[in-house]
Amino acid sequence: MPRLPGISHAQAVRVFGKIGFRVAREGKHTVMSNGKVRLTIPRHNPINAFTMGALAKDAGLTPEQFRELL
Question: Which residues are CB-neighbours of 4 under 8 A, at least 6 positions away?
């Protein structure tokens, strides 16, 4: 999966919120859910590119779709 460099925690939460995910809880990680899929987003700035790519894939997005939502 192509990399998604330079994505901050806040940007990731905003993008996943746009596609229907809601924050379930926050701590050292933010857990978001859409009722079927649960995403665990680390609170790092920036989030590791490989981690971000895997989160986008788990949410059902391609890297291109994710970039469009930024």
Answer: 49, 52, 53, 56, 63, 66, 67
The reported pTM is: 0.87
Write out the chain's pLDDT in tens, 70 residues.
556 777 899 999 999 999 999 999 999 999 999 999 999 999 988 898 888 989 999 999 988 898 889 8
Radius of gyration of the chain (CA): 11
Helices 49-58 + 9-18 axis angle, to 10: 10
Amino acid letter, 65 = Q
The strand order across the sheet containing 29-33 reads 22-26, 29-33, 38-42
Q: Which domains does the chain have, with CATH numbers?
A: 9-69 (3.30.920.30)
